[in-house]
């Protein structure tokens, strides 16, 4: 008798490595030990969003809804009305599908729910244009009372998850599938409505969120080689944005670049532009997706293709300084 | 008809007069679908919610009007049961009023959910029932759905998830008046076979004449017997515009309409309203008593 060959289980894409979704999943497990009201809702992609960690640790507090995000989003509002603290998890593009449920049954109803979106922007790379979501922050930021977060690395993700669960209102937060560069150590601080300066500079300020923060730091290096002094600001809180920090940067530098893995309409760029226009106007160049959908390729390849990599940010900074 | 049933009928008639007057003074509102579910609301408040106002976050009975456009009926019944004054119910759709065109739970916590975008109230009800089961809290979650509302895909997502999670504490009542905004359901996007649909989604299904209080006693007793691990759907056969002859079974009275003075007068007469009371309603103040 010939023995069947046991092949190894397939490896989920992006599962290995230091990703924000893994940090998010672990943060939820940590929080589960601290508060009994925490529950997690999933639409059949726990392995993709990182909440398989929570499912394995607290199966009785993990609720499965199948591939039905609109229902799941409004169900979370109902669960919140009965003393639970729900965390809704799915991909960014499906959060977009359920934006009206988030609007009526969560935000308008003043329910404290954390909506966590993995696979935002180009993060989902090879899956192509249909899966790449560049409109989520714009849509969620337009909802009254909705906080919008996009942390930059696993350390910040853990802190942001804790802050979002402690927050007295609904929160939309981007996580991410791909392994990312560590930017912070355990002394890092996070607060909703606050950004942090990661590098000082006197000519131009680069404001970034999510995966674009690491690219902005690289862009600052490129600019330094050309004799341009670029300040880098990490702005994980898109709504509300850190007006004080932006005003300080406007006083101390001549121009701005915003960088996000999102449309240039309605997200970080718009939030920064609205803030500066109101407080202390400065020239701004916007780095992000411009009136177009994505396509299949690896995320870094796509970032270069669409000009939202370090070179794109550096070029925008040079342009901003000519204005 | 028992004395209790007569009393219930009188209550429902008063609630109908109040909701029509409110719609008249608002200058807009949905009379047809409000009148069709008024008896269902009155039954619930008269029986299930007699002991305590629904929608306490700590548990007990929970209620959601998922077909939020029937808000005038909900406010009127709420007023008849002392949750607000009748004069407050007459502020429907006015600036500063808690009685918005569709229920808002932040303004009126006893409404249980902000509704008006069809399908969502049902999902919120599933969330409440699931949370109550998880927290081992007693009580039923009752959600009133419109028939046209069932065309929203979210309703079937909610129905599937409620059966999957074995929410025996959830009751969905379909106000089956067979009419929706523009026409009969069957002309817009047919719902039949409706009982089969719910059964195939794993629900226990009961049918009732939604205007017959003795029948409602029977069907709600069964729905609330606590014996079913599956959620229960009550298909309540109703008439759009019930109680006002010229509105009954006519799609013209579904939409947000502006009632004329003559139409309010005629509809109040149809509801057996004495002349002095009619004048009071027309002036915008609720008759005493």
Characterization of the model:
The complex is a heterodimer of chains A (323) and B (289). By secondary structure, chain A is α/β, with parallel strands linked by helices. Chain A has 2 domains: 20-174, Rossmann fold, CATH 3.40.50.970; 196-322, Rossmann fold (3-Layer(aba) Sandwich), CATH 3.40.50. Chain A is built from 13 helices and 12 strands. In chain A, the strands form 2 sheets. In chain A, strands 2-1-3-4-6-5-10 form a 7-stranded mixed beta sheet, sandwiched between helices. A 5-stranded mixed beta sheet of chain A has the order 7-9-8-11-12, sandwiched between helices. In chain A, strand 11 (255-263), helix 11 and strand 12 form a beta-alpha-beta unit. In chain A, helix 1 crosses helix 8, helix 4 runs parallel beside helix 6 (99-108) and helix 10 (243-252) packs across helix 11. The longest helix of chain A has 14 residues, at 212-225. Chain A is globular and about 55 Å long. The model of chain A has no long low-confidence stretch (mean pLDDT 95). Chain B is an alpha/beta fold. Chain B has one domain (3-283): 3-Layer(aba) Sandwich (Rossmann fold). In chain B, 42% of the residues lie in helices and 10% in strands. Chain B has 11 helices and 5 strands; from the N terminus they run H-H-E-H-H-H-E-H-E-H-H-E-H-E-H-H. Chain B has a 5-stranded parallel beta sheet with strand order 1-2-3-5-4, with helices on both faces. In chain B, helix 1 packs antiparallel against helix 2 (31-46), helix 2 (31-46) packs parallel to helix 3 (71-80) and helix 5 runs parallel beside helix 6 (153-164). The longest helix of chain B is centred in the N-terminal third of the chain and has 24 residues, at 3-26. The two termini of chain B are 24 Å apart. The mean pLDDT of chain B is 96. The A-B interface holds A 39, 60-61, 63-66, 68, 70-84, 86, 100-101, 104-105, 108-110 and B 55, 57-59, 62, 104-106, 112-117, 119-120, 123-132, 134-135, 137, 153-154, 157-158, 160-161, 164-165.
């Amino acid at each position: 008798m010939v023995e069947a060959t046991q092949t190894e289980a397939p490896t989920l894409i992006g599962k290995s490595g230091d990703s924000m979704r893994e940090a998010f999943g672990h943060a939820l497990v940590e929080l589960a030990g601290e508060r009994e009201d925490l529950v997690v809702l999933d639409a059949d992609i726990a392995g993709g969003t990182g909440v398989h960690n929570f499912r394995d640790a607290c199966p009785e507090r993990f609720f499965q809804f199948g591939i039905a995000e609109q229902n799941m989003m409004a169900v979370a509002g109902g669960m919140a009305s009965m003393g639970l603290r729900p965390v809704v998890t799915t991909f960014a593009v499906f959060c977009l599908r359920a934006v009206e449920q988030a609007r009526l049954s969560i935000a308008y109803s003043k329910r404290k729910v954390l909506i966590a979106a993995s696979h935002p922007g180009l993060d989902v790379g090879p899956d192509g244009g249909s899966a790449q979501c560049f409109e989520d922050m714009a849509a969620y930021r337009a909802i009254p009372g909705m906080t919008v977060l996009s942390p930059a690395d696993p350390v910040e993700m853990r802190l942001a998850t804790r802050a979002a669960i402690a927050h007295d209102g609904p929160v939309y937060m981007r996580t991410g599938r791909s392994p990312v560069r560590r930017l912070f150590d355990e002394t890092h601080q996070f607060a909703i409505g606050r950004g942090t300066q990661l590098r000082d500079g006197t000519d131009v300020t680069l404001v970034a969120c999510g995966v674009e923060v690491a690219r902005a730091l690289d862009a600052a290096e490129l600019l330094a080689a050309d004799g341009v002094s670029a300040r880098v600001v990490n702005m994980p809180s898109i709504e509300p944005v850190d007006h004080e920090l932006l005003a300080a940067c406007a006083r101390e530098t001549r121009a701005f670049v915003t960088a996000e893995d999102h449309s240039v309409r309605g997200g970080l760029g718009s939030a920064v532009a609205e803030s500066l226009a109101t407080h202390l106007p400065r020239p701004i160049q916007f780095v992000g997706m411009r009136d177009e959908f994505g396509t299949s390729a690896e995320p870094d390849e796509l970032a270069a293709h669409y000009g939202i990599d370090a070179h794109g940010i550096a070029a925008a900074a040079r342009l901003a300084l000519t204005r | 008809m028992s004395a209790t049933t007569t009393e219930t009928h009188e209550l429902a008639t008063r609630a109908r007069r109040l909701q029509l007057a409110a719609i008249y003074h608002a200058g807009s509102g949905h009379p047809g679908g409000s009148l069709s579910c008024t008896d269902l609301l009155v039954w619930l408040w008269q029986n299930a919610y007699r002991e305590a106002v629904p929608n306490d976050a700590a548990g007990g009975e929970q209620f959601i009007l998922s077909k939020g456009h029937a808000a005038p009926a909900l406010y009127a019944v709420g007023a008849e049961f002392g949750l607000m004054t009748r004069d407050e119910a007459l502020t429907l759709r006015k600036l500063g009023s808690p009685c918005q065109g569709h229920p808002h739970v932040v303004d009126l916590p006893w409404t249980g959910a902000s509704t008006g975008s069809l399908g969502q109230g049902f999902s919120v009800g599933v969330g409440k029932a699931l949370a109550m089961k998880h927290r081992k809290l007693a009580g039923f979650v009752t959600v009133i759905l419109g028939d046209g509302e069932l065309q929203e895909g979210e309703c079937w997502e909610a129905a599937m998830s409620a059966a999957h999670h074995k929410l025996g504490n959830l009751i969905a009542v379909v106000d089956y008046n067979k009419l929706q905004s523009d026409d009969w359901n069957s002309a817009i996007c047919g719902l039949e076979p409706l009982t089969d649909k719910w059964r195939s989604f794993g629900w226990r299904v009961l049918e009732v004449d939604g205007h017959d209080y003795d029948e409602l006693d029977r069907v709600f007793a069964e729905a609330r017997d606590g014996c079913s691990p599956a959620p229960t759907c009550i298909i309540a056969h109703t008439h759009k515009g019930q109680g006002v002859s010229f509105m009954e079974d006519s799609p013209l009275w579904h939409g947000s309409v502006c009632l004329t003075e003559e139409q309010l007068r005629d509809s109040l007469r149809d509801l057996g309203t004495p002349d002095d009371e009619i004048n009071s309603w027309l002036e915008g103040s609720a008759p005493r008593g």
